[in-house]
Amino acid sequence: MSMVVLRDITTNAFSSVTGSDWLGYCNHVRKLETQYWEKDKLLENTIDEFIIAMGGAENDTSDSKSD
């Protein structure tokens, strides 16, 4: 494929996208981005709770050498 043909195909493709199409694409991306942010927030909160639950108390003396 030559650069001329590629340029023509690309120009035709861009000119076939309407304003309504573009608005739909942007809205779809915003929706996906919001979903990913919500999932990331839930995952981060779950990981934080897990780390806190597994960490235990910092001043736990059961492992001290004085036992």
Task: Write a concise synopsis of the structure shown.
The chain is mainly alpha-helical and 67 residues long. The protein is 76% helix and 0% strand.
- Report the β-strand fraction as a percent range: under 5%
Radius of gyration: 27 Å
**Largest sheet composition:** none
Mean of the pLDDT scores? 82
Report how far the terminal alpha carbons are from each other. 78 Å
Number of helices: 2
General form? elongated
Q: What structural class results from the helix and strand content? A: mainly alpha
In helices, the fraction of residues equals over 70%
The succession of helices and strands, N to C, reads: HH
Low-confidence blocks of residues: none
Total number of β-strand segments? 0
Account of the 3D structure:
The protein has 67 residues and is mainly α. It contains 2 helices and no strands. It has helices at residues 3-16, 19-55. The longest helix has 37 residues, at 19-55. The radius of gyration is 27 Å and the shape is elongated. The model has no long low-confidence stretch (mean pLDDT 82).
Break the fold down into its secondary structure elements and pairings.
Elements: H1 3-16, H2 19-55
